[in-house]
Every structure is written in structure tokens, then in C-alpha cells.
Amino acid sequence: MPVSAVTTVTVRALLFAGYADALGREVVTVTVPAPATVGSVVAHLRALPGGDRLPPRPLCAVNLAHARFDLGVTEGDEVAILPPLAGG
Amino acid sequence: MPHLQGQPLDLGRLVAQVTSPQRGGIACFLGVVRNHHGGRQVDRLEYSAYAPMAEGECARIAAEATARWDVAVALEHRVGALAVGDAAVAIAAAASHRDAAFEACRFIIEEVKRRVPIWKREYYADGSVAWVDPTAPAGIQAAMPDAAARSG
After folding, report:
1. Nearest residue of A to residue B31 by CA position?
2. So what's the ipTM on this one?
3. What is the pTM of this model?
4. Spatial contact of A78 and A14, defined as CB atoms under 8 Å apart
């Protein structure tokens, strides 16, 4: 009988600007149950100390591209949580 | 040529990059650090970026502009510490005629603001510090612990 080999997904979450200040760090290794989405990574981060300063649905990117909140993430992905952009 | 620059921007260099004999119109945009924001006096600021993604987004924006108009474009954004009056973003778009040059230049600055992961931390004359949030009513993100500490 086949056994599901992957029951969790571990990603590298990046925090910037005010969000990095809020959580006190710029990189967080996040392990969430599979199947995982951008949203489940954000929910995990929001439960950490200081994470309540992150909005429920921040702008996000996966592997250097803007990503929808319901996008699936897989082992080793880089998930960036982006504060409101202020370039230009 | 990287789109993110740690050194002062030189619009003339960008113009030189897009200049060619068949392009008779060059539109430029230079965004510079202003001395006020939300009624507060700004002394200086710092730009930080998610560098690999910001480079990729800038390259995509430039590619989209050249696909949409017959233009040559150049685009650079500063990162690091800037003073009032320093150039923060420089854009040059060259086309055979002015319409395409203006449209491409406008497209690029609007897309930079909308898509490129860059953040701005302003230092005010009263000693306080804040991350700029263009989506917030006052344009300034709710005070973070370190900003409060510095303003204390």
C-alpha cells in the first residue's frame, strides 16, 4: 500500500522592510502541512511573535515572481512577503 | 547593466544608451528625493530592494515596453542612502517620434511603482523614521518598534 512520502513542505520565507522589523528577522524557515500555498506560509508567519503586524493578505512572490495567495508552494521554494512597494 | 544602482544615477548615460540615428525623440523621467512627505520634513532616506526579483521585474518591464512600442529604453533605480535632491529613478525611452517615447517612458515609471520590490525608509527632521506605505492614508506605515525607539 503506497504511503505518502511528503506530508510537510519546507520553504524559505523572506521578509523585508517593515515586515522584517516586525518579526525581527529577514529569513524564516517555514514548515507547513502539504499541500501548501502562499496563504498557508503567510498564516504560519502571522502566528509567530510580531507576526500580527503582517496583514492577512500581503503582497507575495514565489521564486522571484509575483504570486497569488492561493498559489501552491513546494519543497525548497523561496516565498517572499512584500510590504507595500515604494519604489520610483 | 544592472537596473539597481548603489551609486548616483547619471541620466546622460542612460540617454547615451538609447540614442541612435533613427530615433528622433527621447523622453526621460527623473524621480528625485523630495524634502517633504505627509506634512513632515524629510532629511534623507534609504531605499532597499529584494534585489534579484527587482532586477528581474525591471528587465521584464523594459522588455514589455520594447515589445509594445518601437523604442529603445534604459531604466535604473537607486538603492542605499539618498539625500534630498538625489535621483532615485532614471528612465530614458527613445523612438522615431515623440508619441511612442513619451508613452513608453510613462509606462515604465508606472510599472516600476506597481511591480518592482523596492522599499523606502524616510528619516524626518524631528528624528523619527518610517517605512513609506503608498497604500496607507497618510502614506506612512504604522510605526514599527525601531522607528518608535529612534523617535523617542
Report:
1. A88
2. 0.92
3. 0.91
4. yes
